[in-house]
Amino acid sequence: MSVSYKYWDDCVDLEEMQLLWKDADVCKEWIDAGEKMGKKVLLSRDPEGQLYLTQTEMRAVAEIVVHLHFNSQLAPVLLISFAFFTSLQQHASLLLLQDMICALAEIISDRQLQAEHYDRKTKQTRIGIMQIAPETAEWLVREMGYRNYEIEGISTLLFRPFVNVYFGAAYLKWLSYCDGKERTEEFVIRAYRGGIKKATHKSTADFFQRYLSIKQSLLPKREEDISDALHTARPISVTSGSGERWTYWDSRVSSEDMEELWRHPEVLKEWTRSGERRGRVRFSHDSEKRPYLSRVEVKAVAELIISRYFSKRGIKPTALAALAEVCSMRFVNGVRARTGLMGIDYPTAAWLYKDVGCRVYKVMSVDDLYNPFVSMYFGASYLAWLSQYEGRERSYQFIVQAYLCGPENIQKRTKGAAAYYETLEPSFSILLYIYYYIAMVLKATLDRCTREVCGPKTCKRCELPCRP
Questions:
Q1: Residues contacting 252, CB < 8 A, separation 6+
Q2: Which Pfam families does its entry note (predicted)?
């Protein structure tokens, strides 16, 4: 398996090349090397003639991939933000995430584009900067819905830097939440090296120590970036044509669903007051330019989905709205390891679609779950399925806990005549408490919580951190 590249233009598309030129450090490095915008840019070669990315180029590629495809989602072990953290801290956490990718690239491939390694135990060949096996990449496409780059049957595409880093990041995301548990940074790194079974084996211990050493060597650059962020108080801007799709509701939601939203009296009132126009309804964005739904919009989407498809299942809009608060903080992309508004990942949605028969909305890739209606539909479908888990009626407490951590992670214990459920992960008890608190608040205030009521910091009625 071999490819022949000479220029950056041979292994990236036009949009990616433009984004690299927009990076100030890359632009300076290339101009200092005699490169000119609009002309082909030579790839670097080491003394042995091997193609490689400079540290500046590697960092830029990692940053662009993370911001374009994994913003607010990848590696919960590194994301330090939650409902009560500032957007600046969230930006710093993304810098840490980029260091994770860059440190791995240093160790496993020396940043060489054409690096190849055959693993005798797994009988797989790992290739490229992030040493991704074609079988792993194809599995991520087929089972996990990562289809921004189609590589099935064309494994040589993995030698391209953006493609390879994309699938490396996708694999890191999966490892960080595999088996339904949030994993530590050490677990993720060691599992990336030797597989999940070797994540706690002594054979991967040295690898993690090397990773920490390399990561430490990257700290001066990261601290410089964080310092710049503290002074400028603004996020790194990575814009592209794909960013337009997060600006407007109409670019993600069908015309039929948009028409239903316009007919909803509370949404109509809110959108009219904010100056929205048919065909150009804007998503709300936080200071990091991440799209989110107002509470009125979340409630409306929940009501529409329930009235259409689950009117006889006893699911309440306030329950779905509360889960949206807990799982995604109402962000369209989701947060941490949870995908989309309702935190439903692609494998679960695909299973509901194929095996359970929930086929109102098609789900062909993970990107489909960034449609609020699609995410809400599969969230409601999953709740309905959990309510009859293993063929019998389930308690409200069981349903919520199972939604948050998976039914297989709940154990039933009996104490005297009383039965109760507890999760294997203590953190889910906290999530359950938060869920019930939000549900209680929303039940009383959701109808009245609008852009006119909520201030920029805290809702005057419900006293929750609020994005109006």
A1: 245, 246, 332, 370, 371, 372
A2: SLT
